[in-house]
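job 3f2a | input accepted
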Amino acid sequence: MTEAEVVFETAGVSTEALASLGEGHIAYVKQIRSEDVPGLFPEAPKIAPGLKLFALHAADGTPIMLTDSREAAIANAWSNELQAVSVH
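job 3f2a | predicted structure (88 res):
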């Protein structure tokens, strides 16, 4: 169990409940490396290593889209009526 999971469990919020927060309303943008793409987006074509990319994920962690700019990920969230937040 991660430290964050322990904090939420102690506060009475299960990991499952935490994952469902914002479902259908919130998405997050996360910077990733091109080496991480096959694990998140198995259907994506091969991408050169060493590239900085941005992934848009649903609140539950489901990958939605991949792009080379943070702005494009946020625009996609807005076009799907999702509030985008950044994750570091």
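job 3f2a | Strands lie at 26-33, 52-58, 63-67, 83-87.
job 3f2a | closed
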